Amino acid sequence: MMKNEWTEKFDWVMMFGACHDQMRPDRCLKEIYRVLKPNGLFSMFETNGTSNVYKDKEINTSTYMYGVSLSHCLPLGINSEGKHSFIL
């Protein structure tokens, strides 16, 4: 969890290609909502995949992204301790 004193502290929060790495994306998004000021902005950029390995392999950058996911994203996501953990 983020610091308690960060509640309603930020005008804008950006997440770039990280939501899919979270062990508990629901908790991560809830924390983002908590730290945003009223009427604050949240921007999220995510991978453009279909969740279908047969379709994704036809996209030129999918092989690269799959390699990055296996070597970086997956280990981070499963390394969280506790049922309420998420990556920050």
Automatic annotation (TrEMBL):
Methyltransferase domain boundaries: 6-52
InterPro entries hit by this protein: Methyltranfer_dom, SAM-dependent_MTases_sf
Tree of life domain: Eukaryota
Gene3D superfamilies recorded: Vaccinia Virus protein VP39 (3.40.50.150)
Matches recorded under SUPFAM superfamilies: S-adenosyl-L-methionine-dependent methyltransferases
Transmembrane segments: none
PANTHER family: METHYLTRANSFERASE DOMAIN-CONTAINING PROTEIN, PROTEIN CBG10435
Protein's name in the database: Methyltransferase domain-containing protein
Protein's organism: Wuchereria bancrofti
